[in-house]
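The record is given unchanged here:
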Amino acid sequence: MRARTGAPAARRGAGDRGRVLVARLDDAGDVLLAGPAVRAVRTLAREVVFLAGPNGRAAAELLPGVDRVIEWRAPWIDHTPPPVTGGQVAALVAGLGGVDEAVVLTSFHQSALPLALLLRLAGVSRITAISNDYPGSLLDVRHVVDESADVPEAERMLAVAGAAGFGLPKGDDGKLAVQRPLPDISGFLGHHLGVGTDAGKGTYVVVHPGTSAPARTWPADRHRQTVRELVEDGHQVVVTGTERDLTAYVAGALAADLGGMTTFAELAAVIEGADVLVAGNTGPAHLAAAVGTPVVSLFAPVVPAARWAPYGVPFTLLGDQRAPCRGSRARDCPVAGHPCLSQVTSEQVVKAVRELTQ
């Protein structure tokens, strides 16, 4: 467990809900979607502590309203779960000392109750979460929802904050957001694009070929062909990601390859400067939503697009949303030939980019 400590909190005053923990323990995109809920909590909290998994920490550090981030790998949520040990649990419980209240945010397929139990052991006196299972004394506010209804994930989490008594401040539009200022990457990006450092928004397209799950991944050769056709269509192209072999292959000799070169905050700045992002259902698609950049979304229906499509920005959804894999939550494609995304062509992507830039 790792914590980032902010400035000492002020003394609790009238109407102050104290130190409030917001938890979202999975990936970066999920954490970004929790942003509106965090801002709602911040309206009454003296301090907002965010509990994130290792895949979501960098995103949590970018959320407006977060004062401190604690990182912990949850054995019931992480994709490569560690064994449950007394030492691991004791470290989390000790690190949560001084938290007055908690808002536990989960997706429809996750349970808030294991964390609620640990929060009780840490002395947290008020806990709010969604639970369709009987929570006993683990929750003070049990928010029950109709899990058959496909509500956008950001709105689902904002509703949990609302059930706890936290609302967005006046004038907040409820969209995704990141802390400002973002890093200045103009000189760095200008060097890689071969243009001046004053390049503004709309001078390039970002292609992000990687995802956290193979079932959500469009083939690398399709990405490479898309880069070629985007360049032929008059666009400069930037390829991003952490898998350097993949980004180098997709970029070829035609695009700027930033694979492995950016922090999460720098990636946000790169995407903010783009005309459009081309990406699957992965964290950078939600990062684009947080910085106001339209998205061509190569979306595998293993989870519902109505819940996890880019929120609050223009987007074009590509992929067969009625494919046999729909709703399976599979990380590896369960259908031979990956039909939900293999039918998408580079021509369709280029056409979608063209439409979103007009």
Summary: The chain is about 30% helix and 15% strand. The two ends are 47 Å apart (CA to CA).
